[in-house]
Amino acid sequence: MVMLFLSIIFAYLLGAISSSYIAGKVASGVDIRDHGSGNAGATNTLRVLGPKLALLVLVADIVKGILAIAFAHLATNGSQWAMALSGLAAIIGHNWPIYFNFRGGKGVATTIGVLATLSFPPALYAGLVAIALLLLTRYVSLAALTFVTLTPIFQIAMHTPAPYIWVSVIILLMTFWRHRTNITRLRKGVEHRIFSR
């Protein structure tokens, strides 16, 4: 139980390291949250700082999710609940980082790392659909929402362990909540498209 608790705390603190904030400060001396969409994530980094830094941020945020689960696996001898809850904690840390006044991102990249690590085949299939949708529409938000919606569906179809499914559903709800303004813009037809100013 102690290692479960420590794994969750570690995951949150790791997730709370905002790579986009650090990239903005180091590269240009700016707070990424005060520019573009105001979101501390890879998409806004692309908009404000360019593709190279955006790629670094994307990879760093994905890796946070992977490392959080890897630590939980080692610390708890592979407890499924520990890994699932630690993945969730990493996303919560990214979205509400204690180091940065709880102003973070929307957790999409970290979610990719978490879901792909917990259940790779379902996340892969959901990801392929999301990527196709992104290429067709250039709506990152729509692709992200599609990814988190399809992943638990594929998990259920592929008999994924229950802890992973439950956490994926929580991630789905959290992602929709974080994207509520994007959903409003999508419904109005005014959502931002990637690679457009």
From TrEMBL:
Pathway: Lipid metabolism; phospholipid metabolism. The keyword Cell membrane applies. Belongs to the PlsY family. InterPro entries: G3P_acylTferase_PlsY. Its main location: membrane. Keywords: Acyltransferase, Cell membrane, Lipid biosynthesis, Lipid metabolism, Membrane, Phospholipid biosynthesis, Phospholipid metabolism, Transferase, Transmembrane, Transmembrane helix. GO terms for molecular function: acyl-phosphate glycerol-3-phosphate acyltransferase activity. GO terms for biological process: phospholipid biosynthetic process. This is Glycerol-3-phosphate acyltransferase. Pfam families: G3P_acyltransf. The chain crosses the membrane at residues 53-74, 81-100, 112-134, 163-179. One of its GO terms (cellular component) is plasma membrane. Probably interacts with PlsX. It is found in: Cell membrane. PANTHER family: GLYCEROL-3-PHOSPHATE ACYLTRANSFERASE-RELATED, INNER MEMBRANE PROTEIN YGIH. Its EC number is 2.3.1.275. It is a multi-pass membrane protein. It is an enzyme of class 2 (transferase). It comes from Sulfoacidibacillus thermotolerans (Acidibacillus sulfuroxidans). Catalyzes the transfer of an acyl group from acyl-phosphate (acyl-PO(4)) to glycerol-3-phosphate (G3P) to form lysophosphatidic acid (LPA). This enzyme utilizes acyl-phosphate as fatty acyl donor, but not acyl-CoA or acyl-ACP. It comes from the Bacteria. The keyword Lipid biosynthesis applies. It catalyses: an acyl phosphate + sn-glycerol 3-phosphate = a 1-acyl-sn-glycero-3-phosphate + phosphate.
